[in-house]
Design goal:
This protein has 203 residues and is an alpha/beta fold. It has 2 domains: 167 residues, Aconitase, domain 4 (Alpha-Beta Barrel); 30 residues, no CATH class. The protein is 33% helix and 16% strand. The chain has a 7-stranded mixed sheet. The radius of gyration is 20 Å and the shape is globular.
């Protein structure tokens, strides 16, 4: 997993509440376990019309927000099913941070396991970021070490994050990476077990 330390990127406003995981990545795109290639399905019903043509009115299709790395959205983002493809699709599209007033629990947990930073701010702060993102300067900065979000105008907002999750994000550690940190202890245990119970090694 790629470490997250600081992000300076365009922010795209998506002022919709209760966006569920089926809206983030519809079910027809869940036929793969690969994390690459899912960007084409991200917000598919918003980004395309009935014929599959690009919808120019959707924010992520607009030239000003091409290459956005931050998504600012409404309450309860990521509700619905537990599909891990949702953070995969966002990251494959280039989104590395989602800012909202609240997230669904399973989606929130999945974000940390995949290197996507979910940031919770107060409603008035999220609204200010959305308003500024609609202006000419869309660049928003997220500093995970300092736990701050800096708006295009320079307004600074602080956010809370679990200390253990923060350290894992800073180090780029998912569940597997965290386990591998204990590899020497695991190897030592297996060596001792082989000496104490050699019959287990014969299988």
């Amino acid at each position: 997993m790629e470490a997250f330390t600081r992000l300076d990127a365009k922010a795209a406003p998506l002022p919709l509440a209760n966006i569920d995981t089926d809206q983030i990545i519809p079910k027809q795109f869940l036929k793969t376990v690969e994390r690459k290639g899912l960007a084409k399905g991200l917000f598919y019903e918003y980004r395309t019309d009935a014929e599959g043509r690009e919808n120019p009115d959707f924010v992520l299709n607009q030239p000003a927000y091409k290459g956005a790395g931050v998504l600012i959205t409404g309450d309860n983002f990521g509700c619905g099913s537990s599909r891990e493809h949702a953070p995969w699709a966002l990251m494959d599209f280039g989104i590395k941070c989602v800012i909202s007033t609240s997230f669904a629990d399973i989606f929130y947990n999945n974000c940390f396991q995949n290197g996507l930073l979910p940031v919770v701010l107060k409603a008035e702060q999220v609204q200010q970021l959305m308003d500024e993102a609609r202006g000419g300067n869309h660049v928003t900065s997220i500093d995970l070490e300092a736990q701050t979000v800096t708006s295009p105008s320079g307004a600074v907002f602080t956010f809370e994050i679990d200390p253990q999750r923060k350290q894992k994000m800073l180090q780029g550690l998912d569940a597997i990476g965290e386990t591998l940190q204990a590899a020497p202890s695991i190897d030592l245990y297996e060596q001792k077990r082989a000496l104490d119970r050699p019959w287990l090694e014969r299988a």
